[in-house]
């Protein structure tokens, strides 16, 4: 157990070290991404934001062109058509430049993405586009300013709103596409003078501030969405990595289990062959079949050799049984068996051992118990393991009670109860685990590998049954192996032979 604990502690420390290393690598990667970013977030976020900006500009190109044409048509009611046409051509040329840059970004290699260069290029294109919109202020040179200023004001608000919504994922682009036209038209309105024009100029500036603020809020919302998406993708990747690691660990465990089974199968043959000779010859020496020993201690030594050989053979058999059960290769040879007869045979086998320790072995059997459908050898092993454990840990002059009766649900159960020292509650899980031994077994140095109860559990699971252990310190222990009602033979419906009507008539006649 100390070695196993040390291995577990080493695995935990190794896992903590890997987690710490992974966290440090993630922190360094985040810092590197922020240093490479043009917006102070992450370079990967910059790519997503610029990609959305380029997509938005390309998608909104036709609607924006339509807006420009409509505005120039409306303005031609006050301004000569030549000037509105030249203005519309300049704005459409600026829009074309922006769309061409966005298209080139879409076709570029993401692996060679440089956030700073592309951001500068987009801002330059938006500046040209914004300056083309600002030519709107020249309309006052060729038309009466008093009637034209409300139209210019309306055109400014439309352009600012449309461009702000389209470029919200790149705030500097929003500023470059809207600020020139707002400043030039507002200055023109102030230059014309008059309360109305002053008011319109103030409203235009406030509109610029509002739409730039709105664009920044939309940018923050888009950035938060991208961040959540990245976190979700990262979590999915971690889960996938954990699943792959789990599958790899499962494959290694399966391979180790196969190797263990092969090793045990090979070693069982290699060990059983010399053990049979050891047990056989030590039996001959112990029984003095070939003559009395000249030295009395030889007979005692032969007995010790025989007992040790038997113990080692039992241990090998338990290891093989547990290995076959865990590998799913423990096949039940099922037939109709009597649980009462099996328990009686086991009681007779263990009675001599109980008397040698001065232990009373009581036996109670229910009335008219039908047969069970199960593996006789496996059920016999269950009862023997339970009786052997009870006798082993019950002190001299104690009592062990074996009970075979019906269970509450109509099945059958085997109960073995002793008045020994009991098992502490915190050690029950250890006792039921493979190779687990409680403090009592360690103090008394009782022989055993801690495989008896785990094998009982596995055999009961193969029989679709249940195994329960109840113990209280200084009050003894009770173990109950319960077989389900489905395995009780009287639970099966009787077979009724159907006779033909002709046979009935012939018997009556």
UniProtKB/TrEMBL annotation:
InterPro entries for the chain? HATPase_C_sf, HATPase_dom, His_kinase_dom, HisK_dim/P_dom, HisK_dim/P_sf, Sensor_HK_Regulatory, Sig_transdc_His_kin-like_C
Top-level enzyme category? transferase
* Domain annotation Histidine kinase: ranges: 266-487
Q: Which GO terms describe its molecular function?
A: kinase activity
Q: Which UniProt keywords are present, listed alphabetically?
A: Coiled coil, Kinase, Membrane, Phosphoprotein, Transferase, Transmembrane, Transmembrane helix, Two-component regulatory system
Cited SMART domains: HATPase_c, HisKA
Transmembrane domains' residue ranges: 60-79, 85-105, 117-142, 148-166
Coiled coil ranges (UniProt) are 232-259
The reaction(s) this protein catalyses = ATP + protein L-histidine = ADP + protein N-phospho-L-histidine
EC no. given is 2.7.13.3
Q: Does the keyword Phosphoprotein apply?
A: yes
- Protein name as catalogued: histidine kinase
Q: Which organism is it from?
A: Devosia yakushimensis
Lineage of the species this protein comes from: Bacteria, Pseudomonadati, Pseudomonadota, Alphaproteobacteria, Hyphomicrobiales
């Amino acid at each position: 157990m100390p070695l196993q604990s040390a291995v577990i502690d080493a695995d935990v420390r190794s896992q903590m070290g890997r987690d710490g290393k992974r966290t440090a690598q993630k922190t360094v990667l985040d810092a590197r991404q922020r240093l490479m970013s043009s917006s102070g977030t992450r370079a990967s976020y910059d790519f997503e934001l610029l990609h959305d900006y380029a997509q938005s500009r390309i998608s909104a190109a036709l609607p924006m062109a339509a807006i420009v044409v409509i505005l120039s048509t409306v303005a031609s009611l006050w301004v000569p058509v030549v000037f509105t046409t030249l203005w519309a051509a300049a704005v459409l040329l600026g829009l074309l430049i922006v769309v061409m840059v966005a298209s080139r970004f879409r076709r570029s290699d993401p692996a060679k993405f440089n956030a700073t260069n592309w951001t500068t290029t987009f801002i330059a294109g938006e500046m040209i586009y914004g300056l083309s919109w600002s030519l709107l202020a020249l309309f006052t040179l060729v038309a009466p300013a008093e009637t034209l200023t409300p139209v210019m004001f309306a055109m400014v608000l439309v352009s600012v709103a449309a461009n702000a919504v389209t470029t919200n994922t790149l705030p500097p682009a929003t500023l470059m596409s809207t600020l020139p036209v707002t400043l030039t038209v507002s200055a023109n309105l102030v230059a014309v003078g008059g309360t109305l024009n002053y008011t319109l100029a103030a409203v235009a500036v406030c509109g610029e501030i509002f739409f730039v603020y709105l664009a920044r809020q939309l940018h923050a919302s888009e950035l938060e969405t991208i961040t959540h998406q990245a976190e979700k993708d990262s979590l999915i990747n971690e889960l996938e990595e954990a699943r792959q690691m789990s599958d790899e660990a499962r494959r290694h465990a399966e391979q180790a289990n196969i190797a263990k089974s092969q090793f045990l199968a090979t070693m069982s043959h290699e060990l059983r062959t010399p053990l049979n000779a050891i047990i056989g010859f030590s039996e001959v020496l112990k029984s003095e079949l070939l003559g009395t020993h000249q030295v009395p201690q030889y007979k005692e030594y032969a007995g010790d050799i025989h007992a040790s050989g038997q113990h080692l053979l039992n241990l090998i058999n338990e290891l093989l049984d547990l290995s076959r059960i865990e590998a799913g290769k423990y096949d039940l040879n099922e037939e109709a068996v009597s649980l009462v007869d099996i328990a009686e045979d086991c009681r007779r086998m263990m009675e001599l051992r109980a008397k040698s320790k001065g232990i009373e072995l009581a036996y109670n059997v229910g009335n008219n118990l039908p047969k069970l459908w199960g593996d006789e050898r496996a059920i016999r092993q269950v009862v023997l393991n339970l009786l052997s454990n009870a006798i082993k840990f019950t002190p001299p002059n104690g009592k062990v009670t074996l009970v075979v009766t019906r269970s509450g649900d109509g099945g059958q159960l085997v109960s073995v109860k002793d008045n020994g020292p009991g098992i502490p509650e915190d050690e029950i899980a250890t006792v039921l685990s493979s190779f687990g031994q409680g403090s009592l077994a360690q103090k008394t140095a009782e022989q055993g590998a801690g495989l008896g109860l785990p094998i009982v559990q596995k055999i009961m699971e193969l029989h679709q049954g249940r195994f329960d252990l109840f113990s209280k310190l200084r009050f003894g222990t009770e173990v109950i192996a319960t077989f389900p009602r489905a395995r009780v033979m009287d639970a099966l419906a009787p077979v009724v032979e159907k006779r033909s009507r002709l046979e009935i008539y012939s018997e009556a006649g």
